[in-house]
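1st attempt posting a full record on here, be nice pls
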Amino acid sequence: MAKAAWKRPGSPIGRKGPRKANPAYKRRARQPWTPSDVSKLKQLAKGNTPTGVMSIKLQRPVAAIRSKAQREGISLRPVNRSPYNRRTKAAKRR
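the predicted structure (as tokens):
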């Protein structure tokens, strides 16, 4: 017979501590995106913020941030990253 959920070692049920009693970081998974959330996502993406940091600031999973950015046409690729092919067009002609 399977153990009860509160007796399993990895179960959060019955746990005590700061995350269980008063979690400061709650994920808003499956919640609708508000226009202010989308504008904050655009602002964070423009500032080259990593998706992990965006996840904490927007209180949403990383996958939700990536999928919403793709649907809205927001690029999460850092602007300041140098391209893999560093040769310029002028150098290729020579």
